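Hey,
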Amino acid sequence: MLQADKLSYTISEFVKATGIARTQVFAHIKRGRLKACKSGRRVLIRAADAQAFLDSLPVRKAA
């Protein structure tokens, strides 16, 4: 899961922490569902934005 002490995640770190596929992460960013910022050539996801995105995902109820 996400680390409490990190301020931001690279795409690779976010993928590893959440298990969401890299292409899906970029699709969510493109659609505006996941906020990201750039520092030079790097795409960063702020920890608060990462948590907000995860909290916004629908919860699946047990069948």
